[in-house]
Amino acid sequence: MAILEILEYPDERLKQVSERVTDFGDELQLFLADLEETMRAGPGGVGIAAAQVGRFQRIALVDCSVTRKPVPNHGFMVLINPEITQWEGMKVGREGCMSVPDYTGNVIRAEKISFSAQDASGETIEYECEGYEARAVQHELDHLDGMIFLDRLVSRNKDLFRRKVYK
Amino acid sequence: MNNWYMVTLVGRDQKGIVSRVTKALFEGGCNLGEASMMRLGSNFGVMLMVGSDSAVSTIESLIQPVAKSLGLMVHIDAVDGNKRDHPQPNVDISVYGADKAGIVAEVTGLLAEVGLNIIDMQTVVAGSEERPIYIMQIDGHSDESVDRLRAAIEPVIAQGIEVQINDIETMIG
Ligand SMILES: [Zn+2]
């Protein structure tokens, strides 16, 4: 196992769109272990996307069981080729990113999402998440599309409902 | 950049203040650091960190012509460098109520007593001329719980002032 190097903005590669995973073999399993170790090494990190370590495949890890204040969560999730199918509600919340050190800002995210993703063995699982965990999933999935939270910053004084964030 | 200065500019709001001030500094070889700029009432205020190898008199000579033509008052202080030192807020406080003298001092006084560190604060006087309301938004850092902060602010709430205090749970991913 190894802690991988995190790409930091303005590294152009963070804007790259990731490709679907097709091979669920041993090499992927080794990478997942390294990616998890990297996520846990980051201070307060509850999620990571493969793109953040320069591997442009649709892989994200999320673990919201470790927050300071407990939040509803599914524990450790390996999300491969994830697809959000439903969004509900909107909420402003504060986010930071291991790829953007020393800054946090407000971002609007859906409060509840439904999505499917494959696990490490390639099996498809359906999820429903809310609140903080839904925020983490949306943040990580953005990385897979070459987006970072700075692309979605809002001022807290801005009217929440006048802005269209999700198409 | 050996020296950092906090440049404060205040004057009647008009178009072009930010672009003309920053252009003069940039063309004078200064490095612009963090800044906060906003309209307050009918005024515009700028607080801008400026890095330069030059002395304060040089910065002054760069800004003065622009400030004069825009009718801005200028104040320049030498300050600590533009270090990356950003305490992240963990509590969000909003306060509103009928505008009355002393509300800010009372609210912030009670919060200071329980150790709240204000990182960012904005206040606006809104409502009608006859019945003004005061709206205050604070991002702060506190080692105390939200419940403890709420208890501390109780005397203000008892006066009919609305206070919302919420945890900011920053998601890092
Ligand atoms: Zn991120």
Describe this structure as you would to a colleague.
The complex is a heterodimer of chains A (167) and B (173). Chain A has a domain at 20-88 and 111-150: Peptide Deformylase (Alpha-Beta Complex), CATH 3.90.45. In chain A, 18% of the residues lie in helices and 34% in strands. Chain A has helices at 26-41, 131-144, and strands at residues 47-49, 59-63, 76-97, 100-118, 124-130. The radius of gyration of chain A is 15 Å and the shape is globular. Chain B folds into two domains: 3-78, ACT domain (Alpha-Beta Plaits), CATH 3.30.70.260; 91-167, 2-Layer Sandwich (Alpha-Beta Plaits), CATH 3.30.70.260. Chain B has five helices and nine strands, in the order E-H-E-E-H-E-E-H-E-E-H-H-E-E. Chain B has helices at 17-27, 56-70, 103-113, 146-152, 154-157; strands spanning 3-12, 31-40, 43-52, 73-79, 91-98, 117-127, 132-141, 162-167, 171-172. In chain B, the strands form two sheets. In chain B, strands 2-3-1-4 form a four-stranded antiparallel sheet, covered by helices on one side. The radius of gyration of chain B is 19 Å and the shape is globular. The mean pLDDT of chain B is 95. The complex binds zinc ion.
